[in-house]
Design goal:
The complex is a heterodimer of chains A (109) and B (124).
Chain A: E1 9-12, E2 18-23, E3 34-39, E4 46-49, E5 63-68, E6 71-76, E7 85-93, E8 97-100, E9 104-108
Chain B: E1 3-6, E2 10-12, E3 18-25, E4 34-39, E5 45-52, E6 57-60, E7 69-73, E8 78-83, E9 92-99, E10 111-114, E11 118-122
Parallel strand pairs in B: 2-11
Antiparallel strand pairs in B: 1-3, 3-8, 4-5, 4-9, 5-6, 7-8, 9-10, 9-11
Classes of the chains: A mainly beta (109), B mainly beta (124).
């Protein structure tokens, strides 16, 4: 059971906009930044979003993040086949530790 | 280029010991924490623990405390994850990853970069 809660799956057709939610608590998302990682099949996770809504250099602006209270969301617009991957939210928890969501498998139909 | 390179895949029997490695390059190895993350087959990411190579200060997730040992050799810019007696349930991919912020006082932040992963298979 992961500390952060994500839907196990999401899907969309090419060109669509999809969102992935991430729910936490006051000790993690509620008081710290949220991060998102993309894990393509057979590869290591890659940073996608940091500090709730910032994109590292090289990440397309089709990817955006937001946070409100103890929840966060990742939005992907203009969905492309290469976006098919697992997506994980993460945050620092005041316990202290890093915590992750269980991951969302995104399928591009 | 900041890079973490991990040791190769391992196949072990239950009860055996194992030490896997993660070599950092392209940055001051002693100035950043390095963490370990487990991914069991078909499952999500779990933070295991972290070490500050500058003075070997180590912190563990409660779930992994006593189950593994994290260490580092700063002379060769390498962090380690080791088991004294493996179990079948230790079968997983293990990643090392560097938190974003430099300095011992800053814990938190995002992990970037990540190592390529070390697959550990424990089977009789």
């Amino acid at each position: 059971q992961s500390v952060l809660t994500q839907p196990p799956s999401a899907s969309g057709t090419p060109g669509q906009r999809v969102t992935i939610s991430c729910s936490g608590s006051s000790s993690n998302i509620g008081s710290n930044y949220v991060y998102w990682y993309q894990q393509l099949p057979g590869t290591a996770p890659k940073l996608l979003i940091y500090r709730n809504n910032q994109r590292p250099s090289g990440v397309p602006d089709r990817f955006s993040g937001s946070k409100s209270g103890t929840s966060a969301s990742l939005a992907i617009s203009g969905l492309r086949s290469e976006d098919e991957a697992d997506y994980y939210c993460a945050a620092w928890d005041d316990s202290p530790s890093w915590v992750f969501g269980g991951g969302t498998k995104l399928t591009v139909l | 280029e900041v890079q973490l390179v991990q040791s190769g895949a391992e196949v072990k029997k239950p009860g055996e010991s194992l030490k896997i490695s993660c070599k950092g390059s392209g940055y001051s190895f002693t100035s950043y924490w390095i963490g370990w993350v487990r991914q069991m087959p078909g499952k999500g990411l779990e933070w295991m623990g972290i070490i500050y190579p500058g003075d070997s200060d180590t912190r563990y997730s409660p779930s992994f405390q006593g189950q593994v040992t994290i260490s580092a050799d700063k002379s060769i810019s390498t962090a380690y994850l080791q088991w004294s007696s493996l179990k079948a349930s230790d079968t997983a991919m293990y990643y090392c990853a560097r938190p974003s912020a430099a300095g011992k006082r800053v814990l938190g932040g995002w992990f970037d970069p990540w190592g390529q992963g070390t697959l550990v298979t424990v089977s009789s």
